[in-house]
Amino acid sequence: MLKGSKNRQQSERTFQVLVVGSPGCGKSALLHRAVADEFEPAYLQTIGADLVVKQFHGEDFDSCTLDLWCCGGAERYRPLLQQHYDEADVVMMVYDMTSRESFTELTFWYNERMRTMPDAHLFLVGTKADDKAGQEISTEDSQTQATSWKADHVTVSAKTGANISDLFRRLARRCLGVAPAL
Ligand SMILES: Nc1nc2c(ncn2[C@@H]2O[C@H](COP(=O)(O)OP(=O)(O)OP(=O)(O)O)[C@@H](O)[C@H]2O)c(=O)[nH]1
Ligand SMILES: [Mg+2]
Hints:
binds magnesium ion, 7-stranded mixed beta sheet, alpha/beta, globular, 7 strands, Rossmann fold
């Protein structure tokens, strides 16, 4: 189990998740689909940072709360996440499957995590899986990268909702220490 912390009013645990990735890769859309089950086609750039809280009620394992810290992908917002480095349980590295650049940029976040949050678990998440014609990163390539980074790997679509609940279920299980080994 990752370290997490106890909620003030509840007995369940709360885990801190940093959601990082390039501008426009789909971080906010992913979180919005996860908590509101809606999709916004227009690009509304995140200014500064957002906190999205997702409560997870496991059927075959304990419940938990995920604090998802998501900052705008523009470089000037990166320092906003630094205050959460110490308490991060998971770093969710998001890339856009239709953008090789967004995939390459994750190396920054991988190095940052190795330097400052070596104990945080990694998730590598590919978005926009619905856009088959635009794919620039194959699942094989990203799986190879995930294996070398010892990361869980999931590809999702916020547009269709595909794999979103699977992602958060795996995330909650990983936090609670009930996920199968990689
Ligand atoms: N087709 C498709 N488009 C998506 C998907 N997810 C996000 N988008 C679109 O991609 C654009 C950017 O999505 P955002 O979620 O705002 O990206 P972001 O990573 O939060 O961007 P910043 O806040 O600038 O860092 C929007 O127009 C979304 O509608 C997806 O799964 N499929
Ligand atoms: Mg955003």
